[in-house]
Amino acid sequence: MLKPLPVKLRTLLASGALAFGVALGGCSQSSETSSREKPLVVASYSVLCDLTTEIAQDTIDMTCLIEPGQDPHTYKATTLARQSLEQAQLVLYGGYDFEPEIIKLVQATNTPVPKIAVHDQAVPSPIMAEAHHHDDHEQEKDDHKDDHKDHHDHDHDHEEEKTGSAQSDEELEPDPHIWHNVQHAIKMVEVIRSQLAAVNPDDQELYAKNAKQLTTNLEQLDAWVKAQVATIPKGQRQLITTHDALGYYINAYGFSDSDALQGLSAEEAPTAARVKELVQKIKKSKVPTIFAEVTTNDKVIGTVAREAKVKLSEQKLLVDGLGEKGSDTGTYIGMITSNTCAIVDGLGGNCSSFDGKAAK
C-alpha cells in the first residue's frame, strides 16, 4: 500500500507545478505578444509580396491581396482585403493604375500609415504606352481598330504600320509592368527596404543585409537574361505576344521589335475577320514562334498559330505576376528565368539554366 506523501513534499510539488504552468503561460503570452508586435504589411500583388518577404523574412505579418493567376487589372477586393488595408502598418501597391480596385481602396482608407506606390517611386519616368481597357465592352468597341504595337520610345522604320495613325498624348498612359526589367526590380527592392526600415527600425540592419544579397542576386539575373537573349539570331529578336506588357523587357534586353495580338483573352471570341488579320500580321513578321500568356484563349491562339504556320510556345508567359506559390515560377527570379527561356528557345536561341551566378 502506497503511503501518502509528506505534507511538505506535496506542497513543494504543487508549487513547482504552479510555477511550471505560469512559465508555460508566460511563454505562450510572450509568443502571442511577439506575433502581435510584428507589423502587418499588406502588399497588392505577387511580385511585391515575394520581394518584400525576401527582405523581411519572418519579422512581419505579410498579407498578399491578389493571388497568383488573378488579373490585377480586373481584381475585385474582398471584405478581408478591405479589413487588411484598414489594419495595416504599411501598404505596398504597384501604382500606375496596375491594380485599379486596390488603388481606389487605398485612397479611400483613412489611416495614418505609409501607403506606397512602389512602381511610381522606383521608376518615376515610366514608358508611356497605349491605354488598355480590360472590360469586355471596351474591348469589343476596340476590336475594329488595328492591333496596337507598343511605342516604348523606339523609332522603327515601320512606325506608320503600327496603328495607321499617330498616337495622341491622351491615348497614352504609364506602363505599370516595370518589373520585367530586372534593373527596375532592384529599384523596387530599395523602395521596399526603406519602407520596412521606417516601420520596423529594430530590424533595419537585417533588412539592409537581405536587400543587399537580393540585389546581388538580381544583378546576376540581369546579366544572365542579357546573355541568353544574345543567343537569339539578330533577325529573330522580335517578340509577338498576346498582351502588350513586356515593353520594359523588350527595351532592356535588345529586342528589335515587338507586337501584341490584342483580343485573345480567355473571355473574348474574335471574329473570323479578326483572326485573319492577326494571321497576316504574324506572317509579315516572319517570327518562328509566338507567345501566349496564362489568360489567353488557347483555342483561338492555336488556330491563329496554325494558319500563320508558326510555332506556339508551349510555355505560357507570366506578365502580370508570379506563378503558383511553391512552383518554379512562384518567385520573381523563377518567373523571369521561365519567361526568358521560353522566349529565347522559341526564337531560335539557346537558353542555359540560371544558377544564381553571373552569366557565362
Describe this structure in words.
With 360 residues, the protein is of the alpha/beta class. The chain has a domain at 37-123 and 181-218: Nitrogenase molybdenum iron protein domain (Rossmann fold), CATH 3.40.50. It contains 13 helices and 10 strands. The protein has a 4-stranded parallel sheet, with helices on both faces. Strands 5-6 form a two-stranded antiparallel ribbon. Strand 3, helix 4 and strand 4 (115-117) form a beta-alpha-beta unit. Helix 2 (46-56) packs across helix 8 and helix 2 packs across helix 9. It starts with 6 loop residues before the first helix and ends in a 14-residue tail after the last helix. Residues 1-33 and 135-167 have low confidence and may be disordered. It is found in: Cell envelope.
Strand-helix topology:
Elements: H1 7-37, E1 40-43, H2 46-56, E2 61-64, H3 79-87, E3 90-93, H4 100-108, E4 115-117, H5 118-122, E5 128-130, H6 136-142, H7 159-163, E6 172-174, H8 182-199, H9 204-229, E7 238-241, H10 247-252, E8 257-260, H11 272-285, E9 289-290, H12 298-308, E10 311-312, H13 332-346
Parallel strand pairs: 1-2, 1-3, 3-4, 7-8, 9-10
Antiparallel strand pairs: 5-6
